[in-house]
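Here we describe the complex-level prediction in full. Unlike the single-chain runs in Section 2.1, the two entities below were treated as one system.
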Amino acid sequence: MAISPPRYALQEANRLGRRDRVWALFVTNLRLRIGSPLPVALIVVGLISTVLPLLFTVALNQAIGRGSTVELSAFYEPYTNFLLVLFILLLAALVGGGIVADDLGTKSISLYLSRPITLLDYLSAKGAVVVAALSFIAILPGFLGVVVAYVLGYVSAGVALEALGAYLGLGLLLTMTFAALALFLSSLTDRRAWASAGILAIFLIDDVVADALAGIYQNVSWLYASVWEDQLAVARDLFGVANTGPHPDPLTALLVLVIVIIALSAVTYFRLERMELVTE
Amino acid sequence: MFIETSALAKDYGQVHALGPLSLEIPAGSLALVGPNGAGKTTFLRLLMGLLVPTEGTARVLDHDVLSESLRIREKVGYMPEHDCLIPEMTGVGFVAFMGRLSGLPAAVALSRAHDVLQFVGLREERYRRISEYSLGMRQRVKLAQAIVHDPPLCLLDEPTAGLDPMGRVEMLQLLRALALQTGKTVVLSTHLLEDVEGICENLLVLDGGRAVVHGPLRQLLSLGDSTLALRIKGDHARFLAGLAARGVTAELVGEEYRLPRPEGGERVIFEVAQETRTQIRYLGRSVQSLEELFLNSVQHPPRGGA
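The structure predicted for the assembly as a whole is:
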């Protein structure tokens, strides 16, 4: 074994700031999370299964409207596409399940925190990884669909811009909700599978139970407990769909989602901080 | 002072882990020795600001551990005891990543990653995934990530833990090179006393969270001018009887006798040797072994330190 001390030819190199360190943490973890075949396949299939129905729906609306450009509300129907939720959910379970659990399992979290970054930096970067990964299905298809629809002349520039804004806002809201849920569940265990199962179970059970209770008690308030129903309520408002029938109020639904994001993130942070998680 | 602590203490709930410790540790390699559960890891983590002290304060490289822990972590390299690597990454990718987390620009981090991996003897294996590494190789990657950002202070927690004899010898060679050739201050935490010799200048022995011995290693091992070490060849019984007749009692420790310096000086010993026709093979200052020092300090009340 050759032993010679490191040369350190660039010893005097300037140190980069905290933002750059968090960026490095984000980029490397994103590459680790979505760089393997399974997430890539999921993203590609998810992208295709959401962009094509979107284009089909917009084209159909245009055909029904006999050649005139479609309105913003035409983009709401594709947003309710079951495949969109399914692929976001699968990707959230795949990417988000291990986002903290893997670091707890390998104990690499103690190495991360031995570098000049804080727990908040660490969680922000990890949350951003989930947001970025889910954006491939929650935001990108909407963007692609709107751009293609505009290029094909199905929508006016104004409507296209509004639709882009709506997809961006809704996508961020949804991905941040999933990121907060993933961070929380993933920080409870060092087993990725448990956290992934938790993400799937909580989302599905929450939606089914909220729907059932709303039906049984004939009370729309129960729907606020469903993340997806809240998301749809906000989407209806952003896409300008008339709120006919018993639906949650969009502002209240938005508030519920924001509270869920903040509460889950805060609980995750304070719990990990109290754990003094570098100890064994 | 590189490290200063003032009544530093840490409790985990009802369990008292460390302190109160009041120490001043100068630059130069330090052996942090103690039995398992002595508080060594807790001490290192307190120094990095990874744990919040229950009481007291500490300063590392002139930064307060509570309010300036990020500044400390920029200047400190930490090698944890447990496995903590990311198995999906390559050796060079992981070390470069850790360099970037310490604030190195990407190109610099990569260049240094190659450099330190060569230093730790992983030049050929650096592009392999960490999941394919043996335990010895993983220990070396842990050492590489601790020094990639060229920290003046390295905190190494049980770096030889779990290694086979060959791997341990190689790791100790690396640590010696790191401590003696790079000018870094190395704090080497271990429960293996043999790991310390030849690497560390200073010693801190912890036991039950207390500092029982602290100071320069040479000074601590020396028994001073009042005790002599003696090795002889010949009739041991006659020689010892001769010494006893002059009021000097010698104690056999290992392969040598240890005896108080006679009132008449070393001349008394030579006279007895002449009378008993015994050869004196060695006569000089007595130095105790690290093991003796450790056992004495752990079994008896503190000498110096906190």
